[in-house]
Amino acid sequence: MGPIAIAYLLLLFVGYRIVVFHIDRSNISSAARQKGIRNATITWAPFAPGWLFERSKRSYSVHFLDDDGKDRVRYCQISFLTGIYWRD
What we know:
- The protein is an alpha+beta fold.
- Helix content is 36%, strand content 30%.
- The chain is built from one helix and four strands; from the N terminus they run H-E-E-E-E.
- Strands 1-2-3-4 form a four-stranded antiparallel β-sheet, covered by helices on one side.
- A hairpin with a 3-residue loop joins strand 3 and strand 4 (83-87).
């Protein structure tokens, strides 16, 4: 496998991750609104709680202000087959 093929595969992987991140972010934002969470900041959290034995799930942290004005963080895992799983 030549260097051009390796660069092409790397470019494909990065493009895939960017597309998946935007799809996940949109889905998590919709699920957060259904739970009453507004103005959420969603970031990728590869080492979030529960990451160790999960190969096909992606972890994200969701930062938001609760009704009392306190900064809160919730974690969620998402995959194409199982959907969104919220963790505290």
